[in-house]
Design goal:
The structure is a single chain. The chain is mainly beta. It is 7% helix and 48% strand. The two termini are 14 Å apart. The mean pLDDT is 88.
Length: 153
Amino acid sequence: MIRIVEKYLTFENSCIFADFELDAYAQLDIEVELDAPAKLDLALGEVAADGRVEREPGGYRIIRTMQKSCPAGKSAFAFDLPPHKSPYAYSDSVPLPPEADGREVTPFRYVEIIGGSGKVKLTRKAFYGDFDDNAADFCCDNANLNRIWDFCK
């Protein structure tokens, strides 16, 4: 299953921060309409603090960065992800979903772009395994347990 979410944002103080609300294995496409040429610093991550993607998230949490020089006006590009190398000896890589069109995927929730002025459209293409939402149900008076259930679905 693929879930596509688009966010339309405007640079504020040369910065954009987007929260996609849930972590997902995904790809990111970026369309910018810049007021002037710019060298953009982009970051994808699973952890954020104070409106920024955490550069040292710790543990096995992900941070991916890239730089992109863009001319004034409209341009579009994909966040360039390097091929994933499995830490396990039995495999060099992890199979990609067929819908990924050969492009790498990585888990992320947050996106940060620094260095421009103008407008940005972020398109996150998230990949999920098939899941029957009706196969099980859970509800209780404890809001935290309900949130955990929603997260684990």
